[in-house]
Design brief:
This protein is an all-alpha fold and 315 residues long. The protein has helices at 11-23, 48-65, 94-115, 127-136, 139-149, 156-161, 179-184, 188-208, 211-225, 238-250, 252-257, 263-275, 285-309, and strands at residues 83-85, 88-90. Strands 1-2 form a two-stranded antiparallel sheet. The chain is globular and about 80 Å long. The structure holds zinc ion (ZN).
């Protein structure tokens, strides 16, 4: 086995495993099992070692998603020296992790302020998925979202503030064109773009989730777009209906920005463990898809409409 170094992710765990292997009177034979083989092969076609690896991976992820905290003061046999920052263990790329840990809390506060999330809601928000979805985007999309979330995109309201334009109303409906307005504008062309993109999102959700979860997410999109309460039936799953209400309450900015209640992920995990679905590795897909779709229909809808009405605004 290679010499472990602190630059390895999970090097602390590997050190402990090596320690226990040395201490054990049992002679163990090593066998390399390639990870994530279920990405390319059906579970039933894998050998027992690979199946065990997939199952262990799924169990570990399910446990992680519960968001339980571990008692980090407890010292285990064979435990290596540890570096902590803001009570978090630093292993792997030390410089990068230190930077992340130092800046994470101030950034979180800033996002909460930008998204208007009250303090008592902060712990209920799924920050982990928010970060992963953001990181998974290509650079151009990261830039787009950062500008969109900071409300500095070139909508009429901002153009007028910067004195690039003196005409404030939306070119489609003549209401004040703020960033929020681009998502709720009731112009026919924008509605058309919304319907087309929601149909795309629907087919993605249907293929990756239960009908109840898919319908709840689609209803959330519609409630936010039409600025209304959800219209789910009275006998709708209580947990899902309350998650939809929570999401609507967090507002359009958090929804489009990808800051969603943790409950979505828990509900999806429950669905996956119930169905023993192999779609588990796509768990962030729908959050990414839904924010991407929304991005497209805002962008396409708006530029198509502007092109249609021949009112180019950026000088
Ligand atoms: Zn409008």
């Amino acid at each position: 086995m290679k010499k472990t170094t602190p630059r390895w992710a999970s090097y602390d765990l590997i050190c402990m495993i090596k320690y226990h292997l040395k201490q054990s009177p049992i002679h163990l034979v090593k066998k390399h099992v390639k990870g994530h083989q279920d990405d390319h092969k059906k579970f039933k076609d894998l050998d027992e070692w690979s199946q065990a690896n997939v199952l262990a991976d799924q169990l570990a992820k399910a446990k992680l998603r519960l968001g339980n905290t571990v008692d980090t003061d407890c010292i285990l046999a064979g435990q290596n020296w540890m570096l902590r920052c803001n009570r978090k263990l630093i292993t792997g790329d030390v410089e990068c992790l230190l930077r992340n840990n130092l800046h994470e809390e101030p950034m979180r506060k800033r996002w909460c302020m930008q998204f208007g999330i009250p303090e008592n809601e902060v712990s209920a928000v799924d920050w982990d998925t928010f970060k992963r979805v953001y990181k998974a985007n290509p650079e151009w999309k990261k830039g787009w979202f950062a500008k969109h979330n900071a409300r500095i995109r070139p909508v009429k309201y901002n153009l007028a503030r910067r004195k690039h334009d003196d005409d404030l109303p939306c070119p489609c409906c003549r209401a004040l064109e703020t960033t929020d307005h681009t998502f709720i504008c009731d112009d026919a062309k924008i509605e058309e773009a919304f319907i087309a993109n929601i149909a795309d999102l629907e087919s993605h959700l249907r293929a990756t989730n239960s009908k109840a979860i898919s319908d709840s997410i689609l209803e959330t999109c519609k409630s936010i777009r039409y600025n209304r309460e959800h219209t789910l039936d009275d006998d709708w799953d209580e947990e899902l209906a309350s998650t939809v209400s929570n999401q609507i309450l967090l507002g359009q900015q958090a929804f489009i920005g990808g800051l969603w209640p943790k409950k979505w992920l828990n509900l999806q995990s429950e669905y996956f463990s119930r169905t023993r679905s192999r779609k588990n590795h796509r768990r962030f897909g729908w959050q990414r898809q839904s924010s991407t779709r929304k991005h497209y229909f805002i962008k396409c809808g708006r530029s198509k409409t502007q092109h249609y009405t021949k009112t180019k605004t950026v000088r």
